[in-house]
Every structure is written in structure tokens, then in C-alpha cells.
Amino acid sequence: MKFTLTSTSAAKVTVYVVSKGNLPVKQLGGYELKEYAGDKGAVTWLYGRESESHKLLVGLGDETKIGLDQIRAAAGFAGRAVEKEQAASAAIDFSMLSGVIGSKISEAEAASAWVEGWLLGTYAFDKYKSKKKQSRTENVELLLTASREMEEALRLGEIRAEGTKLARDLGNEPPNFLRPGDVVERVIERFKDTPVQVEVFMGEQLEEHQMNGLIAVGKGSKYPPALIEMRYCTDPSKPLIALVGKGITFDTGGISLKSGRNLSDMRIDMGGSAAVIGALDIIVSSRLQANVVVLVATAENMPDGASMLPGEVIRYANGLTVQVGNTDAEGRLVLADALIRACKLGAEQIVDIATLTGACVSALGNKMAGVWGTDDMAEVLQKLGLRSGERVWPMPLEDEYDDLLKSQYADLCNITGVAYAGAITAALFLQRFVEAGTKWAHIDMAGPMDAGSTSGYVVEGPTGYGARLLADFVVERSK
What we know:
By secondary structure, the protein is of the alpha/beta class. The strands form 4 sheets. It has an 8-stranded mixed sheet, with helices on both faces. A 6-stranded mixed sheet has the order 1-6-5-2-4-3, covered by helices on one side. Strand 3 (43-46) and strand 4 (54-59) form a beta hairpin. The chain has 12 helices and 19 strands.
């Protein structure tokens, strides 16, 4: 699919982007339209006669509330509608949003968001289906003035969508096609012939570096765990930023076995790793001047005769010992190794992201993630999330709950003995593995890791959440 800028168009469909109470009656030949045509997500077709082009209205809702995410959502709705009609080309008319675009939102921002939303809204994962999705739409023309800045905006929208689609692809893979070793191979293949340097720690290398959390979690599976380290440095003078992702390719709960009729979504327990890999893809494709290390701790959590047992003690490279109270709280055990590694490499700022707790879903639902952080990290991520649409809500690092992690015979336990503050105590656990003075944030993305239905630019299934947010964080902190 090709996105272009033009002042005139002979496209088969013209898409009018409209808001509530501001409908393009004149442009549509005097048709009287119902007010709801401008509602957020509303799609209204006006079909042309014979050789006439069709017109499609897509609503953004209240004009005072329109932002970049509303534009992305409208693009997703429009993209699916145009593809359903099998139109070969479409032109996008923003003229009815003159009160927003050019004042609140620049034309370049609107163009980039539209491309991003269209590509993400028309995403499909049909790799394992016998009937593949066929797209007939080849050209999308934005009726905006062409310039170098605008061309770059289109390219940026495509780059951001591709990184998110990569994260979605990884999340969608069935567990029998994405073992820890497969994640390693995917990373190596994706970043070959790029400035990214990939190093993989497995087997004896994990033992040498005392990555005992990964070893413990992965020992119940015949597919060995790994720590994947990806370095991207185009400017060594910039502060080293570490992105850390949980990569549990399937989580049965281990000996503390999960219950449920359908555990298929446990394949997305590597959603954090998908996010950091997708973020790196955006960073590399954008040719950002930055100094970044991306760490993925990947394992399969399985019940077996050799599995990690409740009650075991894990000794970490920083000297801390952890009692395994529950083998289903395995994500924090592997993240601890990666956080220690990030500090050893000299990272000044660290963001870890994981599908970590159901408690965070109970607190915030499935539309946003929780974020805990030192310094101003949480506030920066919240601000960036509002622009990207990958929202986070700051949560407290409440020291008074730290005692809940006490163990009778180790330095701390990986779970508490109470039924509250589960997401907070998980963050407090991870903080123990970050060196004092290091800026750090933890994102619990268990809620928005997947979507139960398609709406806007979010498609049913793994969302690829976090890829754009983390890429934006690196951009912001590398200025």
C-alpha cells in the first residue's frame, strides 16, 4: 500500500473526516445528514452513480476532544470500510477539520497519525488460516500540501505502524511456533544488516552470569531459556537507556498450575518482549541518534519433574536471595536477571515492561497500563502515552507494603501472603534489583496486552501495546 500527498484526486472513494456538528453538506451536493454521522467511529457511505466516485464520512466525535488518537481511530475505521468495499484507491479530505488541523494539531502530525491508524486498523494475522485476507486497496492519497516535512511524516507513520505490527505478530504466534529459541532466531533475523548488535546468553553462559531466575523458571521445559541483549548505539555521548521485556512464551503457571477452560492468551505472556523488540524496530528504522540496550528474558514456564518448586531459593547475581512462594509469579523472577544486567551495563535509565499481574487489570481495566517509577519517569511516560494512545497511569511505590514480601528463610519472597496490593508489591520486588541512583520505571501491561474486539486502530487479539510508547520514550530522553 502506498500513501501519497496530492491536491487533486481521481480516487474511487473520497473519505471525509468530520466531527460532531460540523458535517460537509456543501461538498456532498446538499445531502442532509443525520447528526450521528459525526459521532466517534461513525461510518456513513454515500455511493456514487455509474462512474461517480463514492463518498465515505468517518466521524471523530466532539471537535473539542479531537487529538492524535482520535485521528488514528478514524483512520482505522475508514481503512476497514474502504477495504471491505474493495476500493483500489481512496482520497482523504481533512478540510472539515480546519479548526483542529493547523491549530491544535499540525498537518504533519495528522498525516502521520492517519497513516499509522490506517495500517494498524487494517492489520490481520492470518498466517495459519487457509483463507488469507485479500486487500485490494493500493493507494491512499492525503489531500494535503506536499513538502519534505509532510513526506517525512508519512514515512514516520509507516515506521511506527510496522514496529507495532511486528509486536502484534510476535504476540499472535502460537506457543508451538514461538519457543524461547524461536524468539532468539526472530530477533537475529529481524536486525541482521542493521546497526544492532545481538548477543545471546544460554546454557552455561546463563550460569556464568548467575542469571539464576531465568534458569529456575525455564528448567521445567525442554526448550531452554535465554537472555537476549540488543545494542544500538549511534551516539555514545548520549545516556544509555535500557528497555527490558518479559518474554515468557507460554505460562502454564508451572507447578502452581493455572486453572481455566482456555489459556490460549498465555501465549501473549511475552507481550513485554514484543513491545521492546517493536520499539527497537521503530528506533532503528527512524535512524534515531541514541544509545540503547534492549534486554529480553525469555523462557517457557512448564510443570515437569525438573520444574522449579514452590519453596525453592534463588540466589541472584546482586547477592539477594528469593523464596519462590508461587511458581506462577515467574515474570518478576526473570526480569530480575535482566534488571541486574542493565545496571551492570551502566544504564542510567531503565524501563521494564511486562504482562505481570492480574491485580493491575483489576485496578485499571484493559485500556491502560500501570506505571511505577523513580524520579520523573512515570510522569514522562504518562505524558507520552497520551500522544501515542498507549496510555499509562502512575501508581505508588508504597514502601509500607515492602514488608509484605518478607520471607522466613530468604531475603524476600516472590509473592505476598495477602490478597491486596499485588501490582504494587510486584513493582517493589523489581525495584530491589535496580541499583540505587538509577532512574527506573516499571510498566504492567497485563490489561492492554490484547483486545477482545476490533475498534478504531486496535484489532482483536494482541495489541502490540508499548512499542510506540517506548520508542517515544527513547526519542524524548535522547534529545
